[in-house]
Amino acid sequence: MTRDLWKHLILILGALIVIAPFYMMVSYSFKSPGEIDRGEGGFFGRQEMMVDERCVKLRDPDRDDVAAAAPRFPNQTDSQIRDALVAEAVADCQMRPIAFNYTKAFTEAPLLRYLLNGVIVTASIFLIQIVVALPAAYALAKLKFWGREAVFSLVLFCLLIPVHAIALPLYIMLAKVGLTNTYAALVVPWTISVFGIFLMRQFFMTVPDDLIDAARMDGMGEFAIVWRVMLPTAIPALLAFAIFSVVAHWNDYFWPRIVVTGNRDLFTPPLGLREFKGDGDGSFFGPMMATATVIVTPLIVAFLVAQRRFIEGITLSGMK
Amino acid sequence: MADLQIDHVTKAFGDTQVLKGISLDIADGEFVSLVGPSGCGKSTLLRIIAGLEGQTSGAIRINGQDVSGIRAADRNLSMVFQSYALYPHLTVAENISVPLKMRQLSASQRLPVIGPFIPGARNRNVEIAAAVKHAAQTLEIDNLLDRKPGQLSGGQRQRVALGRALVREPAAFLLDEPLSNLDAKLRVQTRAEIAELHRRLGATFVYVTHDQVEAMTMSSRIAVMMGGEILQCDAPDEVYNNPLDIRVAEFIGSPKINILPVEASDGALTFDNVVLPTLAPKNLSGPVRIGLRPEALRLAGEDAVLAGQVVHVENLGSEIFAQISLAGHDGRVTLRAAPEQRSSLYIGANVGLAFDGSAALLFGSDGKRIFNPHTVPAQSEVA
């Protein structure tokens, strides 16, 4: 009993450590800058009306504004009109912190565009990775050819190469063919996933040879076997791989930062976070965390959906 | 429908010779079983016939045409696998229709989503659906067509695998131990159904099994394989009654045949200094072996030629198998007795055994059959 208690305590502690940054992120995205600075307001913040200082500053009335507003405020001095206009601006610029943070997230930077870029890049990478990895894994797992073991050793060897070690040569190659600042630069270096080949190969090893022989007897060629037999039976493994691939490339900051220089239309969501980097005019933690929350939400939703598929799985018992 | 000719086929994996020159002619409509212990090369031979594996030398002919170098799909053979090998993601109907779709639809007509709208696909798909329905009715699985293989029992999966094999009316059916994943009761039932299916279709069947009972009950001919060779290929009763090799005699028949070491001289055989009622060829001398089926032995009193003690009794209801330890011999012999003899077959009982001289099978020291003067050599072929 006490052993269980300890086990759970340790697990809960671990879970808290993992969840804490996410908790901060979501919580900050709800709060006003003052609450963030002072570290108060609990999870949701007090959600009191706050004034967007920058909005007020932008509407700071000049002489023409005062002149234009004069008919609305008869019998008042210029400075009185000015005060009234400022008060109006303050009233218009008032909003709840949560609304402030999330509208800022979408208006300050073209976040929708960044999200779209993220979808285009991760989906292209994943699809091409499958197109390359499935036939390669099938050949390595099920076909007999001279040098197969050597090729597989090379695959394993490539798993050991860290991305950062080859970033520079890759960048130079892309620059030489003039592909920097294109979608291709974001996608092409990742299309051959040795991890994908390795993972799918390990899965294909468990598919009975009889199934492949049956497909051959039924008239399928080797490529037909890959797409019509191996792909459908490999859905659970593909989902696992999809999580690795999509999460890695959706969240990747390093590579897009290198090959996308300047062209904001190609920014992926993590690059978008930089827009809120507090330069001169103070920090923008609220909108920044709201952006971060928006960026991770698709991943969390996708994982929850895929998790159900994981559990249901495709029953492979049909083969035995 | 076709006849199959296996002509001096050999297969070597590296240094290991798996098949040592197999020749076998299978006539159109015949049901031939390849039977033998595991590792005898029978499955390899079947896979070579199917085209899933290449032979090292020799030829396979279907209807007289050499198919070496023709890929499995184009040999027009169907195969049923031990594990059934159904596509787990497809329904029963889709599983059965795969061989037809791969043959009768063009690549574009097979495409997902748009395939059915390609000209001509509609009619073909209607024909295929009709063929699938017909095959399913033949095997009485038409109520399962919408299920996935995972939802089926072993017997049902086995039928689906058969359905997928027979839907395209192949030149011959190749079956690789299709019953070994079924439970004993279902195996007996399916055995009869496959034999019936063979009669109904009149097609050529090549059936691989390690179970001699399956081979005995279903086949027109049995090819007994051992060590990469066919030792004998004959009708089941011929293989049982007239085995040409001691290994065939020992493999076929359950319980196993009793083998006794005997001494031959001057046309007579002696076991432990007792002269046996079996005659031997005049010129034979030295140690040889005789084989006696359990049913060839009978309990005897005065005229007993063998004596021993009952050590184990198995009562099957309709018959009794008694294991008897013979005096002057370390092995045991098995006796098949009628239930009425139960009273004299208790453990520890001393019994005498006799047999009809013509029932004994005589084997030389090399294991080859020696035809003794009792039996007229049957016209059997040694492959």
Automatic annotation (TrEMBL), chain A:
Q: Which superkingdom does the taxonomy of this entry point to?
A: Bacteria
State the similarity comment.
Answer: Belongs to the binding-protein-dependent transport system permease family.
Cellular component per GO, a single term? plasma membrane
In what way does this protein cross or attach to the membrane?
A: Multi-pass membrane protein
- The main location is membrane
Q: Which UniProt keywords apply?
A: Cell membrane, Membrane, Transmembrane, Transmembrane helix, Transport
Q: Which gene encodes it?
A: araQ_2
Q: Which organism is this protein's natural source?
A: Cognatishimia activa
Record-linked Pfam families: BPD_transp_1
An individual GO BP term: transmembrane transport
**Residues passing through the membrane, by range:** 9-30, 114-138, 150-171, 183-204, 225-250, 284-306
Name of the protein in question: L-arabinose transport system permease protein AraQ
Please name the SUPFAM superfamilies in this protein's record: MetI-like
| Gene3D superfamilies in alphabetical order | MetI-like (1.10.3720.10)
Q: Where is the signal peptide?
A: none
Cellular location(s): Cell membrane
InterPro entries, A to Z: MetI-like, MetI-like_sf
Domain annotation ABC transmembrane type-1: ranges: 115-306
Does Transcription count among this protein's keywords? no
TrEMBL record, chain B:
Q: Where is the signal peptide?
A: none
Q: Which gene encodes it?
A: sugC
Q: Does the keyword Hydrolase apply?
A: yes
Q: Which GO terms describe its cellular component?
A: ATP-binding cassette (ABC) transporter complex, substrate-binding subunit-containing
InterPro entries attached here?
Answer: AAA+_ATPase, ABC_transporter-like_ATP-bd, ABC_transporter-like_CS, ABC_transpr_MalK-like, ABC_transpr_MalK/UgpC-like, Mo/tungstate-bd_C_term_dom, NA-bd_OB-fold, P-loop_NTPase
Q: Which PROSITE patterns match?
A: ABC_TRANSPORTER_1, ABC_TRANSPORTER_2
EC numbers, comma separated: 3.6.3.-
- TM regions (residue ranges): none
Where does the ABC transporter domain start and stop, copy by copy? 4-252
Protein name listed in UniProt: Trehalose import ATP-binding protein SugC
On the tree of life, the source organism's domain of life is Bacteria
Q: Name one GO molecular function term.
A: ABC-type transporter activity
Key words, A-Z: ATP-binding, Cell membrane, Hydrolase, Membrane, Nucleotide-binding, Translocase, Transport
What's a single GO BP term from this record?
A: carbohydrate transport
